[in-house]
Amino acid sequence: MLRFGQHLIKPSVVFLKTELSFALVNRKPVVPGHVLVCPLRPVERFRDLRPEEVADLFHTAQRVGNVVEKHFCGTSLTISIQDGPEAGQTVKHVHVHVLPRRAGDFSRNDDVYEELQQHDKEDSSDKWRTEEEMAAEAAILKKYFQEN
Hints:
This protein is α+β, with helices and mostly antiparallel strands. Helices cover 30% and strands 22% of the residues.
């Protein structure tokens, strides 16, 4: 199992693993296809990543963004890092939010940032997706990264 801050992540929800990073589906996505890309090493702040971890994290985020935009019929991406508690970070492990976007998904385009700020602050687990739902999405996304 991988660690994401205080959480243990089941392999079934991880759809890509590189030398230094991994990508997983989100238990409470802001939009369909909202996923996370994290360094394998559990580092709390972006400034604490080594240069090679930054490079791998962003290369992985780019690859993942291309896939989720295509798969979820997006026309753009929001890519965001909440770095520290005042920035809205709730899990003490650097992670990049990758959200496929399309026209009209929010009435005001920048409302996406307010949603990101609030989406995982509610402790109500009844709004979380099931492990089965998450595993099914991860299995679909994983196919895009399998080498032929």
